[in-house]
């Protein structure tokens, strides 16, 4: 392979290695940027979910404590005066729903019997003790019980507070706040984030069929079919947090399906939190295009440099080789170009020039010797 070609290939190969050394870290760095940004956003959403649940629980507890401490409330329950409680609270329930998001407002007897549903005053007297365990625990411990609880209507934020009258426990009061569509809307807050909520049925179900996922989903911030299948729901029900990757309305999203635990620590549902990757992927694509353009530009410059270097150095060395061949063949008339003596090619040119001068000197000496021999021979003949 000619030296000029070897020089060209070497420079281009070095430029290619340099471009890959810069471009590949940019490419993988952009991918990591997208992943880390998504993880950070999902972490923020999970913390916001926990804070929002805590805030709703505290609000429900504050309302329950405020009502439980009213003397008229304890007296009405103690004297079985349901109508008096209804007259006090039923007229204002709609306002409480509007201002505080109250969905359930109920009084219970110490035995867990519904004494008055302010949200549905016509229904009372049914036994809740078989499935409303917050009510059972609050009556048994005579202490407030708070948290999420799964009931026949789904999971809600519950605060059950004991009621005393003249130092005697006479029952409990309960406030229930919504944990569904409006809660999720406040969680995503109109951003590119999405969420959906799944509530498990009260009966124990070990596995879910595909249709069960649709039945279990109670709320979502987007339209469309449920995104989690039965197998994923079953994994989360066992306490596992499952990462997800889905497409919503043509936009890529990554998410996390995490357990929702009730007041007793049991998994009662799944919160599927999602964040859009569209903007992040657009940034990643832009970075990759910039890296690709920079690599192509670097390669183009390398080719130009390689051509210049090949012609400059390779041409000079090739020229020196040609002149050496001419000198070796006896052509001492060939011209040796003057080059910078500080570099290797210049030193090579000087060496070739010295070789030429030596050859010329040898030729001159030999010519003089021949002349002297001829003159001596001529003198002997005289």
From TrEMBL:
Any single GO BP term: signal transduction
SMART domains attached to this UniProt entry: HAMP
Family matches, as InterPro entries: dCache_3, HAMP_dom, Sensor-like_sf
GO cellular component, one term: membrane
TM region positions: 289-310
Gene3D superfamilies in the record: 6.10.340.10, PAS domain
Keyword terms of this UniProt record: Membrane, Transmembrane, Transmembrane helix
Sequence ranges assigned to domain HAMP in this UniProt record: 311-364
Protein name per the record: HAMP domain-containing protein
């Amino acid at each position: 392979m000619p030296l000029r070609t070897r020089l060209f290939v070497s420079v281009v190969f070095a430029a290619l290695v340099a471009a890959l050394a810069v471009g590949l870290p940019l490419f993988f760095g952009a991918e990591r940027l997208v992943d880390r940004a998504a993880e950070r956003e999902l972490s923020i959403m999970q913390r916001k979910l926990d804070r929002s649940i805590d805030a709703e629980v505290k609000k429900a507890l504050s309302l329950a404590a405020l009502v439980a401490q009213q003397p008229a409330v304890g007296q009405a329950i103690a004297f079985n005066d349901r109508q008096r409680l209804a007259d006090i609270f039923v007229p204002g329930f709609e306002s409480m729903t509007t201002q505080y998001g109250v969905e359930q407002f109920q009084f219970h007897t110490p035995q867990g019997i519904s004494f008055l549903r302010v949200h549905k005053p016509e229904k009372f007297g049914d036994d809740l003790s078989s499935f409303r365990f917050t009510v059972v625990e609050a009556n048994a411990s005579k202490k407030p019980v708070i948290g999420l609880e799964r009931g026949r209507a789904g999971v809600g934020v519950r605060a059950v507070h004991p009621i005393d009258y003249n130092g005697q426990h006479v029952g409990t009061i309960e406030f229930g706040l919504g944990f569904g569509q409006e809660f999720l809307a406040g969680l995503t807050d109109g951003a590119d984030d999405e969420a959906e909520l799944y509530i498990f049925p009260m009966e124990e179900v070990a596995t879910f069929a595909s249709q069960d996922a649709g039945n279990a989903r109670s709320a979502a911030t987007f339209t469309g079919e449920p995104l989690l299948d039965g197998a994923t729901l079953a994994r989360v029900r066992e306490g596992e947090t499952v990462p997800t990757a889905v497409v919503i309305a043509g936009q890529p999203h990554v998410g996390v399906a995490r357990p929702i635990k009730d007041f007793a620590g049991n998994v009662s549902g799944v919160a599927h939190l999602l964040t859009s990757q569209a903007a992040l992927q657009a940034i990643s694509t832009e970075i990759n295009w910039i890296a690709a353009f920079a690599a192509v530009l670097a390669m183009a410059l390398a080719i130009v440099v390689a051509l210049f270097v090949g012609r400059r150095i390779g041409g000079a060395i090739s020229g020196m080789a040609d002149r050496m061949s001419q000198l070796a063949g006896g052509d001492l008339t060939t011209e040796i170009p003057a080059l910078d003596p500080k570099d290797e090619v210049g030193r090579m040119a000087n060496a070739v020039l010295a070789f030429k001068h030596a050859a010329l000197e040898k030729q001159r000496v030999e010519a003089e010797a021949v002349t002297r021999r001829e003159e001596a021979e001529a003198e002997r003949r005289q």
